[in-house]
Amino acid sequence: MPTRATIIAVNKHLHPVRLATYSARCGNDPFLALELYKWNLHLSAAFQQVLAISEVALRNAIDQQLRTWNAYQPHHTRTGATHGADWLIDPARPLNSLTRGSRRTATQHATEADGNRDSKHPRKGAVITHDDVLAQITFGVWPKLLPTPNAGDASYRGRQVLWRDALPSEPIARPAQPGFTHGAAPRCQHHGSPQ
Q1: How many whole angstroms separate alpha carbon 139 and alpha carbon 127?
Q2: For position 182, what pLDDT does the model report?
Q3: How large is the C-alpha radius of gyration of the chain?
Q4: Among 80, 192, 84, 87, which Cα is nearest to 131's?
Q5: Cα separations (Å) of 172 from 8, 156, 169, 178?
Q6: Residue 177: is its pLDDT beyond 80?
Q7: How many Cα atoms within 13 Å fall on the side-chain side of residue 172?
């Protein structure tokens, strides 16, 4: 068990704003506040494990639906052609506008990841594939593809089209509050204060 002097020293090095909620909940007892802070760190770590698996499962489920949908969409620049399944490289409308910046960033990160591979890595210098880019898409992209209740949002129509036409079937469960997991991930990652 740490000494009281150690606990006070640790508390001094953590920003007062970070500890304020913990201290208030613990009657300003620095030992109890630090214990509550440690408990919150453990809770956040447990959420991270679940979120890591959930994110990959959600990503893969949405990706599969978007691949299927995109493959049947008429190409907007080639008459009589369709876009194909690779929505990250050749997205149909509205995926094109909804994901443009995210796709660009993910492609850059996939290229950087290849550059960081050891020269003996079997995929060193390989062509960047859909799966390489998909692995670099951040969790924050997926809520931007789900419907928004704000009809004034510039992406409102596009998101409605995707939800209705591209993502209508299982295994994607339609959440009552699409933003819940999106909001939970950053709080866990940044060890937010208990509410």
Answers
A1: 24
A2: 47
A3: 22
A4: 87
A5: 48, 20, 7, 12
A6: no
A7: 24
